[in-house]
Design goal:
Number of helices of chain A: 12
Largest interface: A-B, 31 and 35 residues
Largest sheet of chain B: 5 strands, mixed
Low-confidence stretches of chain A: none
Distance between the termini of chain A: 47 Å
Oligomer: heterodimer
CATH class of the largest domain in chain A: Alpha Beta
Order of helices and strands of chain A: EHEHEEEHHHHHHEEHEEEEEEEHHH
Shape of chain B: globular
Order of helices and strands of chain B: EEHEEEHHHH
Mean pLDDT of chain A: 97
CATH architecture of the largest domain in chain B: Roll
Distance between the termini of chain B: 51 Å
Radius of gyration of chain A: 18 Å
Largest sheet of chain A: 5 strands, antiparallel
Radius of gyration of chain B: 16 Å
CATH superfamily of the largest domain in chain B: Beta-grasp domain
CATH architecture of the largest domain in chain A: 2-Layer Sandwich
CATH topology of the largest domain in chain A: Uridine Diphospho-n-acetylenolpyruvylglucosamine Reductase, domain 3
Low-confidence stretches of chain B: none
Number of strands of chain B: 5
Number of helices of chain B: 5
Number of strands of chain A: 14
């Protein structure tokens, strides 16, 4: 399968990428690792007429201790997250979830910013960043703005990014020693989650769900139940509240609702162990 | 629209320069432009791993990368592993352990293994199974493949 024809531009910096987007408007798409975009283009589900390759904008590949938080460049690859000592010490949930994205080959190419910008509700990292209350730094023609993860994911493959904006940095809290578990239910190890549930316990408890709606989402009812003193088993009974799972070849909506209750209970239990 | 992009690559130690269509996939570049057909196209949807090659030493699925993205890179394919008649330790281990049935996935399995052992030189069986999760064997001959990877790790230690 071969993508439809397009013009290829390589950006050497974030500024160059934004200038190219400004010039080509809606017809242009940013290409980072390509692990989400290229399959869509090969299936001709996406047919951008201009690809702006930001894969070599090395200034956006970093993991830094920024004092009260960690700053992760948008073009940091999953592999670099997986082997990061900074993350292992300060934000193990991000390291763990990055190590469960796709397979080795995918993690060698795919980037955290690409995954976030793609905004797929079945992806692992967007849900985690929602659970971590991450902040996204977005650069556009008029400069930078920050968007909280809670306001970023708008609909199926739809985010708060404007067509002429580039996600440049992801800011995550330092959570040394936080309890964490990601329960990813899949048919084959490399697959997308049919349903995923993750719990972060660090004083409070935050729960995020993968593939239970058109966007990644927080299990608000579960979080409230835990805050009100409910056990993991009791709280997990409310895991499907507020979700809108789709049906597909892997699961009916009803089966997804069953799975999410089981997976949330396991995540809560494992995260507090 | 389309045009062409000038790319320079090093494939198995040999320098190449070509004008390619932007939409040319790396696997097509290797098979049809460079002429190395050891790299297979299996699922063509980045699931099966048959097209795995090394780009700058790391395994990638060449059906899901543009040739243009590989500009300036050093690429290793299955043809680049052996030194003359002497098989690479991973190839030798696959041979010794009979780690293939139909053979279609083998080039990708071997390349994924070379990258895996570079990252984890002494893997456990679990490391091997997880490390090869991106490669499917349609004959389901995984047992001998895992044994071969463990054997190769032993010899390259």
């Amino acid at each position: 399968m071969i993508p439809a024809p397009f013009d290829y531009l390589r950006a050497g910096s974030a500024d160059e990428a934004i200038a190219a987007l400004a010039e080509h408007g809606d017809d242009a798409k940013l290409l980072a690792g390509g692990m989400s975009l290229l399959p869509l283009m090969k299936l001709r589900l996406a047919t951008p007429s201009v690809l702006v390759d930001v894969g070599r904008v090395h200034e956006l590949s970093y993991i830094r201790d920024a004092g009260d938080h960690l700053a992760v460049g948008a073009l940091t690859r999953h592999r670099d997250l997986e082997i990061s000592d900074v993350l292992a010490a300060q934000c193990e949930p991000l390291r763990t979830v990055a190590s469960e994205v796709g397979d080795n080959q995918v993690r060698h190419r795919g980037t955290i910013g690409g995954s976030v910008s793609h905004g797929d509700p079945a992806s692992d990292l967007p849900a985690l960043l929602l659970a971590l209350d991450a902040t996204f730094v977005v650069q556009g023609p008029d400069g930078d703005r920050t968007v909280p993860a809670a306001d970023f994911f708008r609909g199926f493959l739809e985010t708060a990014l404007e067509p002429d904006e580039l996600l440049t940095e992801i800011r995550v809290p330092k959570l040394p020693g936080a309890g964490f578990s990601y329960q990813k239910f899949q048919r084959r190890a490399q697959d997308w989650a049919i349903v995923g549930a993750m719990a972060v316990r660090d004083g409070d408890t935050r729960v995020a769900l993968v593939n239970m709606a058109t966007t990644p989402l927080r299990a608000v009812a579960v979080e409230e139940a835990i805050a009100g003193g409910a056990s993991a088993t009791e709280a997990a009974e409310r895991a499907a509240e507020g979700t809108e799972p789709s049906g597909d070849i892997n699961a009916t909506p009803e089966y997804r609702e069953h799975l999410v209750r089981v997976l949330v209970r396991r995540a809560l239990e494992a995260a507090s162990a | 629209m389309g045009g062409s992009v000038r790319i320079a690559t090093t494939v198995n130690g040999q320098a190449h320069e070509h004008d390619v269509e932007p939409r040319l996939l790396l696997v097509q570049y290797l098979r049809e432009v460079v002429g190395l057909t050891g790299t297979k196209i299996g699922c063509d949807t980045s699931s099966c791993g048959a097209c795995t090659v090394l780009v700058d030493g790391e395994s990638v699925k060449s059906c899901t990368m543009l040739a243009a993205q590989a500009d300036g890179s050093e690429i290793t394919t299955i043809e680049g592993l052996a030194q003359g008649d002497e098989l690479h330790p991973v190839q030798a281990a696959f041979h010794d352990q009979h780690a293939l049935q139909c053979g279609f996935c083998t080039a990708g399995m071997v390349m994924a293994t070379v990258s895996l052992l570079d990252e984890i030189p002494s893997p456990t069986e679990r490391d091997v199974r997880l490390g090869l999760e991106g490669n499917l064997c349609r004959c389901t001959g995984y047992h001998n493949i895992v044994q071969a990877v463990l054997a190769a790790a032993g010899t390259s230690r």
